[in-house]
Amino acid sequence: MKNIKIFLYTLVIANIVGFFALSSSDQAYARDQIKIVGSSTVFPFSSAVAERFGKTKYKTPIVESTGTGGGFKIFCSGRGLNTPDISNASRRIKKSEYTKCLDNGVTVTEVQIGYDGISVAYSNKNGDLNLTREHLYKALAKEVVIDGKLTANPYKKWSDIDSSLPNIAIKVMGPPPTSGTRDAFLELAMEAGAKTDPVLSALKKSDSKAFKKASHTLREDGAYIEAGENDNLIVQKLKASPDLIGIFGFSFLEENADSIKAIKIEGVLPTFDNIIDGKYTISRSLFFYVKREHVKVVPGLKEFVETFVDENTMGINGYLVDKSLIPLQPDQANKYRADVASMKQLEM
């Protein structure tokens, strides 16, 4: 009996020592630099905050443009210090991504920073152009409805879709599948365009999965060109190719207004006022997600997040507005500041 007690006592002590040794090891190898991944659209805003934050007592955070989906994949893989602390996103986290985070022991605080319009643009050497979401769907979907049936997309030129459109080949450069910009474009533009067709509108009601496949599957015959997670590359291509149309975030349009111009969507341009008022139909919310388990381990993480949500940063008169962020209304912004103060856990 005495030997059993000694064994159990030794086992308990060993576990306690092991726990504190592990904790000490975690602290010893703690990073002194914040790591951020995710959306290429949020990248310039996050980078601007990181640059300013690096002028304080903390090191400048590392910000990588991996795309929203790619960012969540890395971010939700675990809570070790070899994983990122923040994931930027140009859409809200999906339930599947949220579940993956939880399965890997990751809990998050959600922060919406503002809004963005998805710009459809081309070289300013061209004249004005007005497209509808129906035009975009017919131009870019792999299959479209012809004589009441889904058929391989036959349209080669914009004028094939509508005689009032330019007699030029359909060539659109846009984001890859890992991009939140692409996710939002498929939902806000392609789905809306598909629903204008009676056959697809009926399909949405009878078989939502089949409708989503029809509206979300893009052409693979060269009419749609994936550009990777670099919106600046799209801008450079537009400058060199007047017939090429690009899809990217509003901030890149603003920064390159000397060489590219927006195409109207249903008669509305993607301007600051039109996006914030909801008049521009292809617009979405921008977010970042904080790994709560890293807040007390990575120096400066909470301070960085507090800096990001500060009125002088993302507020109506904050410096990110000068970089084309469409800001939240004050009551919305205050809600997220309160969430950051308590590091509120997101529940879906």
User: Oligomeric status of the shown chains?
Assistant: single chain
- Count of DSSP helices? 15
- Low-pLDDT regions: 2-29
How many runs of DSSP E, i.e. beta strands? 14
**Largest beta-sheet characterization:** 10 strands, mixed
Q: What's the rounded overall pLDDT mean?
A: 90
* Helix-strand string: HEHEHEHEEHEEHEHHHEHEHEEHEHHEH
Question: Any idea what the shape is?
Answer: globular
Structural class: alpha/beta
Based on CA atoms alone, the radius of gyration comes out at 24 Å
Descriptive terms for the model:
348 residues; alpha/beta; 10-stranded mixed beta sheet; two-stranded parallel sheet; 18% strand; disordered N terminus
Write the layout of secondary structure elements.
Blueprint: H1 2-28, E1 35-38, H2 43-53, E2 62-63, H3 68-75, E3 86-89, H4 95-103, E4 108-123, E5 130-131, H5 133-140, E6 143-146, E7 149-152, H6 158-161, E8 172-174, H7 180-194, H8 198-206, H9 208-216, E9 224-226, H10 231-240, E10 245-249, H11 250-255, E11 260-262, E12 264-265, H12 272-276, E13 283-291, H13 301-309, H14 311-314, E14 326-327, H15 330-342
Parallel strand pairs: 1-2, 1-3, 5-12, 8-9, 8-10
Antiparallel strand pairs: 3-13, 4-10, 4-11, 4-13, 4-14, 6-7
Helix pairs in contact: 5-7, 7-9, 8-9, 13-15
